[in-house]
Design a protein that fits this description.
Radius of gyration: 17 Å
Strand content: under 5%
Order of helices and strands: HHHHHHH
Shape: globular
Length: about 200
């Protein structure tokens, strides 16, 4: 595990990722709202946000991948959520709790490797753990026990597929491409460039 203190570069990178993803997160909320509107007449409105869930884990996984230190993913996720709220997210400050859970879900898999492995296996595991933790949280908030089990299963499967794509695959691909292009130019990202 990288036990060195965070540097100014780390803080600036966290801030940049938070701002960029705060905007992306808000756009994903609008897309989810639009899809919810389309699906509601069919009784499937509850699925509207699910295809976008993996997007809401991306700040945490990209920050954790790039900085490779504990808790940076959680902090970045929460700052991105705060920016999202300040930009006009209609769900309000409750998403700060969601952001903490999302960041925690992402970091669990990295923590089990001591923040030493950054393979697709680890990022895909992060996608799964983030899906499970957020599913428990939203299940509590939205009372999934009162819903038809097929709808609950559809929520979980759709969220998992979104997470595997956006969080497990696309986020790692983005980081790998940044590293290959030399944009990161950081020893931290070149120490372990696993596939």
């Amino acid at each position: 595990m990288n036990k060195k203190e965070l540097t100014l570069r780390d803080y600036l990178l966290m801030a940049l990722i938070s701002v960029v993803f705060g905007v992306f997160y808000l756009l994903a909320v609008y897309a989810g709202t639009a899809l919810t509107t389309v699906l509601t007449p069919f009784g499937l409105g509850v699925l509207g946000y699910e295809p976008f869930y993996g997007i809401w884990f991306m700040a945490a996984i990209i920050t954790t991948y790039l900085i490779r230190k504990p808790v940076v993913g959680i902090v970045t996720e929460m700052i991105a959520a705060l920016i999202e709220v300040l930009l006009g997210n209609m769900f309000g400050v409750i998403i700060l709790i969601s952001a903490f859970i999302q960041g925690l879900g992402v970091e669990v898999a990295f923590a089990f490797t001591g923040y030493k492995k950054y393979t697709y296996k680890v990022t895909m595991t992060s996608a799964v753990t983030a899906t499970v933790l957020t599913f428990i949280w939203t299940g509590f908030r939205n009372n999934y026990l009162a819903m038809d089990w097929r709808i609950v299963l559809a929520i979980f499967v759709t969220r998992l597929l979104s997470s595997l794509f956006f969080t497990g695959y696309l986020s790692k691909l983005i980081c790998d491409k940044l590293d290959e292009a030399g944009i990161l130019n950081s020893m931290q990202t070149r120490e372990v460039h696993d596939r």
